[in-house]
Amino acid sequence: MRRSLWLAVVAVLTMTGSAFSAAAAPKVMIAEPQYMFGQVLDGVVVTHDFVIRNQGDAPLIIGRVRTDCGCTTTSFTRQIPAGGEGKLTVKVSTAGYGGSLIRHEVRVETNDPLYPRLKLLISGEVREFARIDPGAVILKGKAGMEVKAFVTVTPIHPFTALKAYAREGVHIRVIMQEALVEGRKVYTVIIENTMNVPGTYTDSIIVDTDSPVRPEIAIGVQGEIS
Q1: For residue range 3-38, what is the model confidence (pLDDT) as tens digits?
Q2: Which residues contact 186 (CB under 8 A, 6 or more apart)?
């Protein structure tokens, strides 16, 4: 009888201990897993803090955080105590997304047994800063011959283009001309190859503006001289 009672007590204590161990776990909670930033101008960097709470009774560990291209995680709280909260800061560069809707995912790994992987979303509309036509240039031709291209920069958001130049400036010459078209400033950037031997190269044309939103516009250039 005593042996049976002792075994019953041990069984109860074992079950109680197991229940206690099972209860001691983190519990992740993000009240707003999706952030919509509305409308911004092309070139603006959107920054947002996702608030992460731990409603469990064990520390919550934030493991690997992965983002889409154009979206970066600048910092996050790696360990959140039971009942506490932390944050995950995300930055999104909107440069080059003018005239489109963007949607980026942030994937978060945690030690919550019920939610080991979470998905956060950040999205919004990016308005055009300028219309660049074409958006990139290929200078293709024969060595010793005239090889040039023309790029039109039309402001959508008001700004003045101050100057245009090649970032490397080794194999190309740049001239910028301003004109008024229907009362609006339009800039023509003339890009001319100066490499007189066969070869290839890459460079960027930089157009400086007076806008604090987007102080420079970059236009990619590829040279293919035969």
Answers
A1: 544 434 344 444 444 444 557 899 999 999 999 999
A2: 152, 153, 154, 155, 178, 179, 180
In angstroms, the Cα distances linking 174 to 165, 191, 192, 198 are 6, 5, 6, 20
In a 13 Å sphere around the CA of 180, the CA atoms on its Cβ side amount to 2
DSSP 44: P
Pair type for strands 216-225 and 136-141: parallel
Instruction: For residue 32, give both structure tokens.
Output: 């707003």
Q: Which phi and psi angles does 19 have, rounded to 5°?
A: -65, -40
Instruction: Output DSSP code: residue 158.
Output: -
Full set of structural domains in the chain with CATH: 26-127 (2.60.40.10), 130-225 (2.60.40.10)
The two counts, helices (H) then strands (E), for the chain are: 1, 17
CA 13 to centroid of chain Cα atoms = 53
The average pLDDT across 202-215 equals: 93
